[in-house]
């Protein structure tokens, strides 16, 4: 095991036991003029480490050693590392820079993609977390297998990141990719990595990602409401709705920042949805927050990419045994042509499926406007809380008035008929509780819900609502 990475880690990581240094690369194809990597030259090294005081398994794939290429020895070391991590119930942290599969080993190298992916899958199925830090370059078969299967991923600033490196792209397509492609920053914009982190901070980020000491909090963008809306709740339902939509009212990201103590971002391609690994009162949770102040559409409505992020967060929570908390605040999903072409309806359905299949406890908090299936996808939780000033409706009243009356100006009238205020939704039995609009009250309510909810209760509540409706005369 090299000493370079630990030496630069500022004392955060200590190698406790290096593994499999006796494995040596061979030449299975008798490849012409191929010089087999000697001792110390194989790109992958593995070890059990102490990371910020907690044990983990470290996989180090380094481009400076034989181009970081994955052959039989590299694949075997990675597989054994994941198997040991599974047996020891330890997370895996990976530092990666690679040119991909080792061409001189041919299909022997290529099958290592399947072996390492299977090993990573077994580790994940055991409820264990993994995190990867991608250096430059990270390409090819390593990026397209175990490295991209890490539960959380960060990349070095400016790193070359992509399945095909720029030279391969130019050869295959006849045109070099633009400078904005195949970069860590591009990968972040498209939700392929979760953060761009300077190399000096990589060990702190990896430690936080797999459950070590928190090193960051969720910070909303500047210009957002810094406190709950102080205006009194109006009696009229339509005025209640307008207040829930108002610019002084904080959104899901603001409420998530007040409730959580730490945050490791899970990035997505649509800023209308944020997700992260957080802590609440010292307990690890997965959090999803709608951001009504951001988004790709003009109205900041969540599109297909936003719901794919929710699915990823829910499945990560289930896989590693963490509860899920969602903060709901949207008038509905994006119905624009691009969103329709991107399969927004199917993504909402898949989000409902991910929430339904979740084996751990889930808590949803409606903090503003909950509208239609776009909101319901995040509200299919074991415990559904609503802030006093929030609303939840089958459809936005303007769209509903256009459908029912062919007259959107009748939205105030329809608002009253739809019974969408927090009190009315609670009386229907759709919501479990109403919470006052103070950060500490919401924090305590979420903690209590996490402590007392039962996984699977999400279906009981909706069945009871339906049964009452069928029995009504």
CATH architecture of the largest domain: Alpha-Beta Complex
- Based on DSSP secondary structure assignment, what is the total number of beta strands? 16
Please give the count of helices.
Answer: 18
Structural class: alpha/beta
Low-confidence stretches: 1-10
Level-1 CATH class name of the largest domain? Alpha Beta
The biggest beta sheet reads: 8 strands, mixed
Span between N and C termini? 74 Å
Mean pLDDT: 91
Give the radius of gyration: 25 Å
Q: Quote the CATH topology of the largest domain.
A: 2-enoyl-CoA Hydratase, Chain A, domain 1
Main location: cytoplasm
EC number: 2.1.3.15
Function: Component of the acetyl coenzyme A carboxylase (ACC) complex. Biotin carboxylase (BC) catalyzes the carboxylation of biotin on its carrier protein (BCCP) and then the CO(2) group is transferred by the transcarboxylase to acetyl-CoA to form malonyl-CoA.
Subcellular location: Cytoplasm
